[in-house]
Write a structure and sequence with these properties.
Elements: H1 7-10, E1 14-20, H2 24-36, E2 42-45, H3 67-70, H4 75-80, E3 83-86, E4 91-95, E5 100-103, E6 108-116, E7 120-122, E8 135-137, H5 141-151, E9 156-160, H6 164-175, E10 179-183, H7 196-208, E11 211-214, E12 219-224, E13 230-234, E14 239-242, E15 244-247, E16 251-253, H8 256-260, E17 271-273, E18 284-286, E19 291-293, H9 301-317, E20 333-337, E21 340-346, E22 356-362, E23 367-373, E24 380-386, H10 392-401, E25 434-436, E26 441-442, H11 443-451, H12 457-464, H13 474-487, H14 504-514, H15 519-526, H16 535-547, H17 562-565, E27 576-578, H18 589-601, E28 605-608, E29 614-619, H19 624-633, E30 646-651, H20 654-657, H21 665-676, E31 685-690, E32 704-709, E33 712-717, E34 729-735, H22 737-754, H23 761-767, H24 771-780, H25 787-799, H26 804-810, H27 812-815, E35 833-836, E36 839-842, H28 845-848
Parallel strand pairs: 1-2, 1-6, 2-3, 6-18, 8-15, 9-10, 9-15, 10-11, 17-19, 30-31, 31-32
Antiparallel strand pairs: 4-5, 5-6, 7-16, 12-13, 13-14, 20-21, 21-24, 22-23, 23-24, 25-26, 27-29, 28-29, 32-33, 33-34, 35-36
Helix pairs in contact: 2-9, 11-13, 14-16, 19-26, 22-25
Amino acid sequence: MAELNDTSIQTIPKDDVLVIGNGMVGHHFVDQLRAQHPECSIRVLSGEPRLAYDRVHLSEFFSGKTADDLAMTSAEYYQDLKISFHIDAWVQEINKEAKVVTTRDGQKYAYQKLVLATGSYPFVPPIPGNQQEHCLVYRTIEDLEAIQASANVSKVGVVVGGGLLGLEAANAIKETGLETHVVEFAPQLMAVQLDAPGGRVLRDKINELGVKVHTQKATTEIVPGEDCRYRMNFADGSHLETDMILFSAGIRPSDALAREFDLSVGERGGIEINNFCLTSDPSIYAVGECALWQQRIFGLVAPGYTMARAAVSHILHGDSPDTLAFEGADMSTKLKLMGVEVGSIGDAHSNTEGALSYTYENQALGVYKKIVVDAEQTTLLGAVLVGDTSDYDTLLQYALNGISLPEFPESLILPSTGDSAPGLGADALPMTATVCSCHNVSKGDVIAAIDEGNCDLGSVKSCTKASSGCGGCAALLKNVVDSELEKRGVEVKKDICEHFAHSRQELFHIVKVEGIRTFEQLIGKHGNGLGCEVCKPAAASIFASVYNEFVLDKSHIGLQDTNDTYLGNMQKDGTYSVVPRVPGGEITPEKLILLGEVARDYALYTKITGGQRVDLFGARVEDLPDIWQRLVDGGFETGHAYAKALRTVKSCVGSTWCRYGVQDSVGQAIDLENRYKGLRAPHKIKFAVSGCTRECAEAQSKDIGVIATDNGWNLYVCGNGGMKPRHADLFATDLDSETLVKYIDRILSFYVKTADRLQRTSVWMDNMEGGLAYLQDVIINDSLGIAAELEAQMETVVDTYQCEWKTAIEDPESRKRFRQFVNSKNQDDNITFVQERGQIRPATEAEKKSINVVELA
């Protein structure tokens, strides 16, 4: 370091690497650097009041995700990695000679290497009136909070900008329950990614979803409105009134620091970088949306990640031949906008000289597909997909890797007419083929991971991080891993356990086709040994799904796990929960009183659940029949909380009470719960029904979600909470109740028929080749010709429903099972409780030694 006169600067501890900005790319840089250099000192300065979060899924904030849900890191994670960090640390000065930066509050930090990951900011068109209170932007968590606050006092919202970000913003406004409009200056939506026909199809589909699109509109001013807060006047003389305006008309690189402190910037903005992401200063790098490479700004996260890795490589290896260089990035993208699938690959606009194109459009389904090929029709140059992106992964590999096209290229996008479209298996991909673009994982990287001993999909994911970004490569990654394992002689087993050389799906078919009704028959004909804790409950579930016989029948009782054996969830102290069904969350005062009386008389802990029912905890096994006798006599049924079955159908109060409701959500929820109660499945199933798009019932986080519209019901499928939450996908729109039930019948029967053991609906659909589009084809279009069979199977389940607790208490033999000890009527004296907040809870081991316990009546 050069000698400096400012002794205060010389005394500042110098970090090896100082990072300004902690967005997705800045965080990825830090992760990569620490993974490759465990000892270097790293300091992060975040201008925002929080650490990195997922901007790609910002709109999910309005469907229930919190800032914590969107977080990509935490203070604890950085502390564990020994990374120094500061939030609300806005940098306002760079001293390049001293290698020191100064924050707004006067703090100084020294560096050996500086990385600018300052990202971008929203462009707000210079429209008179654009600075008013409810004129907002869509970029940060704080922006989202401002949008929600504005939406709470608004009825109409407008997004200015019809590009990718604009449509994401429109989805956010729609999620708040506002009437939503999109105003776009260009003649079409997503003009960068889509051609004109694709833009038209996208516009039609978004209009059908209730978002009104206005193209070729230039806003001249924003003035007070008559019916709404504002009026937007357009250059063509028309106008639009709205209460809130959200500007999402593009981004600009955050390059203010570079401009002020003499780093080279482009004529139109952006910090100029070379192939190693170095700026004009040899100690300063720039990555992500603030960086300008060969006069290009890359507005997607995957190129930013690649820049981050290049910068890390150069910091660690200098100009070594092995140093990773940034050489541009593929800007292909696949996304879902308000439930509409959109994909764009390469030269989507046929700009290449001599290019030819093939197009397919299905107006009835709202599907548009186009591929662009070279003049010789041997190489794929680009593609546009709207309404169905099931072909995206295959087309992307053709484009990225120069794979020769089939004899008839149009077969890649035409619907199947008996013969399958030409497949592109894992073996056809070159070693350089990119499997995961988010983390730049190639097929060669996957094979290297397998060679190093990672012999299952989970291990390969952990080793390479493939499929841990957007998740869009999950199916391709699995295909590559399975193919490579099979080549090495590693059997990719689907056996349910050592006793059956069959998957759950295969066992289901065997049971159904051969009419097998007992485990002895099943294992005698198709298995070996005596069975185990894996195959026995799985077989019991299959028998229940197919025949719906009483689970405690003599032929089935030995197959059940503990919860099903006692028709209740065993708790940590050996007691059981009692969970009556409360369809749709609707309950009479008389039934509430009965629950209270039972809880009081048996000293049970009571809890209102997220599924809108009352759980009673702490019931001794010998008391269960008497408790349920009272509940059944009072009109309750089992809630199946102990089973892999339908649990609850959550609902809001809907149009009956709510001034925003447009349909009777409670009535619909009760009808659905009463129809599907008792359905045994590979895993638990949860429903919800919301009476309007405000979504108070959180339907889009359920296996089956139903949201009311003015014209009927929108159906969402395959969402879930849990350890790996997943947003449900929009399956069909504006359904009448009869069609809604028909589709749900088919979906659930297909799930029961084909899913793996203990597989949630979300994983089931994601693992299907074609995903949502394939499921829609099977259910809506009956592409497999099994719709009638699926409906008949559901009718069998509905017609044979029985309350398992009612059957159990009416059967003297079943009641005998409910006792603590086989040869004694004594209670288990190890079960003790203490008082807390006016109710019981299980006593700890230390508390059991005390006399302060609660005796059951």
